[in-house]
Design goal:
Length: 465
């Protein structure tokens, strides 16, 4: 089988059946209403696992070949940098293409910026600044980088009821001032939540789209959306991350609401553990007279006990137009039960002549200690802020281990390149320190990462020159 020739087919299928190119549904996969609904992270004595490196490989005739990877660097428990690289098969090396840089305070994102690699240099592309009040995002502003400066593009202002987002107003920049573009409101009733979108017209507002979430209230709807967004970040585009709250979607034709799309989910649970064993998610479109099935996703789970389970496979089927379905794609998952995370996902495509593996995504997870009950005994280990900071050219880095471990202490520049390895090998439990002499390196922000087993902590430091 020529996998190279088959790959464009599966790319098109993935786009069609995971991006879901219906206008309303596309917006729902990145709902701007909850774009800024991050919270100050609650401090729990636990280890939270987040992705370190996610590698995507494509099937070629000779086997698996690297295609792209996403690398994440953390400052403590907060995401600091994320790089997107592509594989140069001729040079047999990763080439950075894009990076995201985050400014985070106490678990809340203050800003994020996108940079792109052009002619071997990082150049700013876009950024978003967030306004917060008591840990809640009240507004955001999107910027594009043009002609050497940041140009405003879009602005969103949220309406809050306590800690809940219940509406928003969106504006666009016309070059001189902000112009109203869209607004949205959430209304809660005994039967569910209605999300209504309107577009601005001269002197009035025009209803355009409406989503109804049956059996939901605003609080659990927001929780569900944040969980979807968090899963999309962690799972890097797997079909599994596109599961959304059940809804019906209507569009306004100028005089009345017309049904267009809906989703329903049936779940099966294990007895007596209460763990989820299967989900069947069906999407339908309205043809003007009746509902016609367009897609069905079946997620299978392995029960771990105590109401816990892990997904093992997702099967996507497309509607055949007459009420039935035919198989299109399957994602099969391997996972680590001890941390409850997927370690690899294999994408297969169903064709008239058989099932073929097209792509595999491999995950490496870091255990991030979110807090400790006793500062002397961290959950994973403790990495101190370097001293002095900023520094020139020498600084001290200290860490402590609750038990013997094999340790790696590495330093990375802003491009994600490793510039130094300060410690490597087995270390006894207790306190340790090392001095780093940064002679010969340019000034700027550097990240230092301490790794022991599956756990890792990263901090930032500044070299002055």
């Amino acid at each position: 089988m020529n996998y190279t020739l088959l790959r464009p087919v599966v790319v098109a299928l993935v786009f069609l059946f995971t991006a879901i190119p219906v206008d309303g549904q596309s917006r729902r996969t990145e709902n701007r209403l909850f774009k800024g609904a991050e919270r100050i992270a609650s401090k729990m004595s636990t280890v939270r696992y987040r992705p370190d490196i996610v590698v995507r490989q494509a099937r070629v005739d000779e086997g698996w070949q690297n295609a792209s990877q996403v690398r994440s660097l953390y400052d403590g428990e907060d995401l600091a940098l994320r790089f997107f690289d592509t594989w140069n098969a001729d040079a047999e090396a990763w080439e950075p293409q894009q990076r995201s840089q985050f400014a985070v305070s106490s678990g809340a994102i203050l800003s994020d910026a996108e940079w792109v690699m052009i002619d071997g240099q990082w150049r700013p592309f876009s950024k978003t600044d967030y306004a917060l009040s008591e840990g809640l995002v009240t507004a955001y502003t999107d910027f594009m980088f043009q002609d050497g400066s940041w140009i405003p593009a879009e602005q969103g202002t949220y309406t809050l009821s306590g800690e809940l987002t219940v509406g928003a107003l969106f504006r666009i920049w016309d070059g001189t001032s902000w112009i109203d573009s869209e607004r949205v409101r959430l209304e809660e009733s005994a039967t569910g939540v209605t999300e209504t979108w309107e577009s601005a017209a001269p002197g009035f507002w025009v209803p355009t789209e409406r989503y109804v979430y049956p059996g939901r209230n605003v609080a659990d709807l927001q929780t569900a959306w944040l969980a979807v967004q968090d899963e999309m970040i962690d799972l890097d585009g797997l079909m599994l991350s596109l599961r959304l709250p059940d809804y019906s979607f209507d569009y306004h034709d100028g005089s009345a609401w017309q049904p267009q799309e809906r989703q329903t989910t049936d779940r099966t649970y294990d007895i007596p553990s209460g763990a989820l064993t299967a989900e069947v998610i069906v999407t339908e479109e309205h043809d003007g007279s009746d509902w016609v099935p367009t897609g069905r996703s079946t997620v299978e789970y392995r029960v771990l006990g105590s109401a816990r389970s892990l997904p093992t496979a997702l099967h996507f089927e497309s509607g055949d137009g007459v009420g039935g379905f035919f198989p299109v794609l399957t994602e099969s998952y391997d996972a680590r039960e001890d941390i409850g995370k997927i370690t690899s996902a294999t994408l297969s495509v169903d064709t008239p002549v058989g099932v073929y593996e097209l792509e595999i995504v491999r995950f490496n997870w870091l255990g991030l200690a979110t807090s400790v009950d006793d500062p002397a005994t961290p959950v994973a280990f403790q990495l101190d802020q370097n001293y002095p900071n900023p520094f020139n050219p020498q600084t001290l880095i200290a860490w402590s281990l609750p038990a013997p471990a094999t340790v790696e202490l590495e330093v990375f520049d802003a491009l994600g390149r490793r510039v130094a390895t300060l410690a490597s090998g087995p270390f006894a439990a207790g306190d340790h320190e090392v001095t780093w002499l940064a002679d010969g390196l340019p000034g700027g922000v550097y990240l230092y990462r301490l790794t022991a087993g599956s756990a890792s902590v990263t901090r930032a430091m500044t070299l002055l020159k």
